[in-house]
Every structure is written in C-alpha cells, then in structure tokens.
C-alpha cells in the first residue's frame, strides 16, 4: 500500500515533492516580493568572505593568505571582499549588497550536524523541534497564496512544517513521456491529495523549463534555475537553496577560491536571469558557524564560532558592512581561537524577512526563533 508520506518517483525528471502539502499554485501570488535563502553547509569562513584587512590581527593570523587581498575590492576601511566574489562586489558598489559580520547562532559547540539542525529548526537546542524557521515564517505572510520551494533532493528541515512547501531537484534521468505522466496521474486519481501533489509536480517541472530533465552543470545553471522558478506570476515567492562543500580543514585558500567563485556565479546568473524582478528580491546567505582565526597545520582552518552573512538584491539597503567588530587580538577571540560573535544570525534573518515583507519584527522573531531575548536587525531593507 502506498503511504501518504511516500510518492513514487515514476516520472523520471520530475520534482521530488515534500509530503507537507507541496504545491506551486496556478493562481497569481498576492505579492511581487521574493526571498531566497542560501545555506552554505560546512561552516564557511567569514574571515575569507569579507577579510578584516584593516585589523592588525588579521595579518598576524593569516599572513600566508593576506597577499590574496592586495587588490581585492574594498568594503570600506576595515574590510576587503574576497577576489573571487566579483559580481558580489559589483552589487555592493551599486548598493545592492551588504555584509553582516561577526554573527553566529546561539550554538556554541562545533558539530556541523547539531549547528545545522539548530539553525534550520530555530530551536534553542539542537533536535528539540521538528519544524523549520522558514516554514513557520510562511504562516505570517499576509497572503494565503504564498508559493514556497526548496531546491534540494529532499525537503530541508528549515522548510518542514504545517505550511505547504515544494522541493524540486533536477535529475540526470531523461524526461518522462506525456503518456507516462498521464498513466501515473491515473494511478493517483483515487486519492485527491496524491493527485493534487502529482499535478503540482508537473506544474513545477513546467516552471523550471528545459533544465528539468538535465543535471545541473554548475553554479550558473543553479542561478538560472532559481530565477526561472521565481520570476513569473505563478512562481515561488520564497526559495531555499543548499550549497554544501564549505568545510575547509585543509588547502582552504584554493578550496575557497573555487567555492566562492561558484557562489558568485550562482548569484550573478540569478541576477541576470530574474531581470527587473531583482528590484523586489532579497537573497540571504548564511552558514552554520565560522572557522578558527589561525591557520592550522594543513593550510586550512578548523571549526569556529562567528562568521559572515551576505544580503543581496535590489530591495537591500546595501553598500555597507553591518558589524559591531570585536577585533582579532588574542584577548578578543572567543575561547582564545574564534571570531567573537557580536551579532546573531537569527536577528539577521529576521530583519531581512520582516523588513522585506513588511511584517512585525517582534512577532516574526518569536515565530521563527522563539525563546530568544533578541531584536531583529533594523535597516537591512531599503
């Protein structure tokens, strides 16, 4: 017997649907505003993304890598953007991007699994919640019709919960024929819920265009896909994207040169493909925790605490670094090794979402990240 929690992958090349009532609605959503949240899994090094080149402690701790920033784009007197982030630098110069630095969740250990769970669930402790902060945020939206989607093989924890969300993952397998699609729909016709989910999968494939039957061939394709899923009246208003590969214990300089270039290509392609809708779009980029200040013996860094977040889009009040900079002197480090957190990822995300969609920031914070005595960051949205 087929469970309501399992839908067969009979249509090769179709979206994988979450079983939380997933759908991309055919009706036009009530808002033109879009939000994309990108999670860099593996603990991205914020000190490389936006290097504090004006802090003497950076040159002392990262002397082997400091030459990389000799001609890097300046973010003001204290910070320099990683040279691989060329498009991000352009957005920053145009006022369409900002950096939030020295931010962390309330997690203070160094397990990827626990940290990612806490970030996505929005709980005070890892594994205490089964729903996600983005799904709970959907319940605050003024419009009942607010399409949401995750570009992932399975629905990420951040998007799980009572509100309907679709997950979509292109596959290497060839597209299903029209005959097969009709036959599978017939199999599901006895169950209205499964039939609706199958129709949602077909609709999502149509929004994705010709990429539905192909494997993503790199960062540009990912950016193009995200834009196609968001850029029309029937598209998603909230999208989450997973980007793994940020754990850099060895050979970090070369690794980040590649991963940051890929991130930059994704963001650049998304900007170019979404066109005029960029003006109503915000992209938030966060990670579960940061890296150690010092370079380790294998030319990498180890698990740390605070990192940096990015906020991009035409709706962003950008061209600046938002930070209560703690400094990199030995006495200023968290536990003598990490960038000290002076701001919170939760406040950053809440400020971006509530500001963009015009929601009450106090209620939004309490819904997304309950139990915290914090306030949303203000002034992130133009």
Relative strand content = 5-15%
SSE string, helices as H and strands as E: EHEHEHEHHEEHHHEHEEEEHH
Largest sheet: 9 strands, mixed
Count of alpha and pi helical runs: 11
Q: What is the count of distinct domains? A: 1
General form: globular
The overall pLDDT, averaged over residues, is 86
Report how far apart the termini are: 52 Å
| Share of helical residues | 25-40%
Low-confidence stretches: 1-29, 210-216
What can you tell me about this protein's structure?
It is built from eleven helices and eleven strands. With 382 residues, it is α/β, with parallel strands linked by helices. It has one domain. Keywords: Signal. This is DUF1501 domain-containing protein. InterPro entries: DUF1501, TAT_signal. It holds the Pfam family DUF1501.
Which helices and strands appear, and what pairs or packs with what?
Blueprint: E1 34-40, H1 46-49, E2 50-51, H2 56-61, E3 80-81, H3 86-93, E4 97-104, H4 112-121, H5 133-138, E5 148-151, E6 166-168, H6 178-188, H7 192-208, H8 219-228, E7 238-243, H9 252-274, E8 281-287, E9 307-312, E10 320-322, E11 343-344, H10 345-357, H11 361-368
Parallel strand pairs: 1-7, 1-8, 4-10, 4-11, 5-6, 5-7
Antiparallel strand pairs: 2-3, 4-9, 8-9
Helix pairs in contact: 6-7, 8-9, 10-11
């Amino acid at each position: 017997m087929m469970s309501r929690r399992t839908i067969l992958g009979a249509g090769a090349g179709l979206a994988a649907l979450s079983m939380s009532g997933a759908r991309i609605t055919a009706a036009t959503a009530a808002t033109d505003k879009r939000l994309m949240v990108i999670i860099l899994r593996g603990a991205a090094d914020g000190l490389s993304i936006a290097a504090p080149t004006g802090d003497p402690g950076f040159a002392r701790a990262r002397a082997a890598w400091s030459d990389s920033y000799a001609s890097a784009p300046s973010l003001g007197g204290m910070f320099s953007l990683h040279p691989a982030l060329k498009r991000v630098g352009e957005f920053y110069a145009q006022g369409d991007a900002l950096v939030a630095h020295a931010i962390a969740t309330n997690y203070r250990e160094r397990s990827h699994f626990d940290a990612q769970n806490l970030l996505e669930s929005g709980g005070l402790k890892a594994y205490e919640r089964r729903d996600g902060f983005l799904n709970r945020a959907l319940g605050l939206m003024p419009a009942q019709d607010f399409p949401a989607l995750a570009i992932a093989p399975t629905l990420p924890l951040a998007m799980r919960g009572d509100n309907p969300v679709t997950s979509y993952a292109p596959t290497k397998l060839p597209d299903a024929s029209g005959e097969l699609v009709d036959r599978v729909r017939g199999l599901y016709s006895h169950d209205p819920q499964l039939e609706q989910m199958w129709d949602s999968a077909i609709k999502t494939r149509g929004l994705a265009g010709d990429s539905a039957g192909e494997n993503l061939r790199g960062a540009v394709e990912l950016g193009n896909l995200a834009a196609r899923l968001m850029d029309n009246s029937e598209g998603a208003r909230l999208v989450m994207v997973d980007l793994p590969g940020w754990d850099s214990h060895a050979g970090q300089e070369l690794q980040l040169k590649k991963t940051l270039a890929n991130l930059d290509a994704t963001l650049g392609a998304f900007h170019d493909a979404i066109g005029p809708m960029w003006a109503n779009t915000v992209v938030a980029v966060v990670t579960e925790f940061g890296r150690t200040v010092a370079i380790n013996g294998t030319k990498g860094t180890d698990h740390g605490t605070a990192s940096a977040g990015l906020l991009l889009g035409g709706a962003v009040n950008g061209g600046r670094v938002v930070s209560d900079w703690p400094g990199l002197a030995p006495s200023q480090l968290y536990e003598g090794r990490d960038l000290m957190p002076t701001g919170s990822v939760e406040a950053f995300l809440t400020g971006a979402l509530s500001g963009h969609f015009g929601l009450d920031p106090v209620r939004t914070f309490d819904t997304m990240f309950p139990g915290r005595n914090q306030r949303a960051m203000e002034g992130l949205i133009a």
